[in-house]
Amino acid sequence: MSAPAAQPQSTCLAESVRADFPALAQRINGHPLVYFDNAATTQKPRAVIEAISHHYEHNNANVHRGVHTLGNRATTAYEGARDRVATFLNARSREEIIFTRGTTESLNLVAATWGAAHLRAGDVIVLTQMEHHSNLVPWQMLARRTGAALRFLPVHGDEGLLDLSGLDAALRGARLLAFTHISNALGTINPVAELCAHARAAGVVSVVDAAQSAGHMPLDVRALDCDFLAFSGHKTCGPTGIGALYARRELLEAMPPYQGGGEMISRVTFEGAEYNEPPHKFEAGTPNIAGAVGLHAALDYLDGLGRARIHTQVQDVTTYACERLREFPGVRLFGPQGERGGLVSFVLPDVHALDLATMADQQGVAIRVGHHCTQPLHDKLGVPATARASFYFYNTRAEVDRFVTVLRRVIQMIKGTP
Questions:
Q1: Catalytic: which of 196, 226, 322, 373?
Q2: What is the DSSP-derived secondary structure letter of residue 5?
Q3: Which of 63, 143, 194, 396 sits at a 20 to 30 Å CA gap from 411?
Q4: Pick the CATH number of 9-44+306-415 from 3.90.1580.10, 3.90.1150.10, 1.10.260.40, 3.40.50.300
């Protein structure tokens, strides 16, 4: 009797952790949930849920200024989360980590502080054509305020690779380069270290949007040699409303505050204020303490699994999903042919993406449709909307098979074929 075929390592990992995620056990419209919307937000393990609950049940107090026991506990937990993020990113010091509401606020903070202090009329900001609106609109707003100009690195066709042949020319005369690590619409994994090296050689400050990569692969800001890097907690198994901005200490010290209020000051008189040292200079008011506690637990959870292992697992499921989707006649897949982030965007002939997602949800399958906050990219690709299936380490090949079966059923219903 022959031995059973070995399961892919990724499937084994997914099956071993699924019980940690309560949301995955539910039924939607009478069907087991297949959650393929992880690029929008990931599900939360019990460890994160319990950490937040424990904080509110036992340690709920404001941070930094209290002298009572609960205040001290809350401060220790909050600043411990900062230490955890610094370790997660391999920052040089904890003072290089600023807590924000997420990637969007982090990028707006850089634009409103470093950008406002350093950019003038005629300066150039370099972006790519694949940027999320969060890494495009803040720079558009800054350019309008300062008179700076935007310059874009082009994207090659449906495969979605950056054309870097003109990179050095694009950086000539520029002050800032902002780009995504992994495209949320294409899955393209950009060469961060290479881009940052070219920027540094040109005297250009680099800003990395790591929203789609922080929870999927190891990140080392020192090895990448970036100046700023942002990520969101809710895409890394953590809660919503919390994220972090990494910034070189020397840049933070020279930047003006983002907002005024409590905690970001060292002394205030009726006539003026002296500002606190980084990172507190950029964290005005009561922070999202419970969010930081939950983020700490999420990063512990991810590193307990191993981010390299997570990346390998997600690659397996993503590659398999691309293979299965190519079975559909006329399907148009967007993104690289080889290694990519954990998502695939696609269009099926004569099937509107919104109809596809709505009817898939009736079968318990959650995917996302639209322009995915990359409307200029979709305009360039010539499509108003795509369907996007995005994966995480708790997803399996069996779920991909079910997804494909549901797609076939939906297409039959839409086209009225038996």
A1: 373
A2: P
A3: 396
A4: 3.90.1150.10
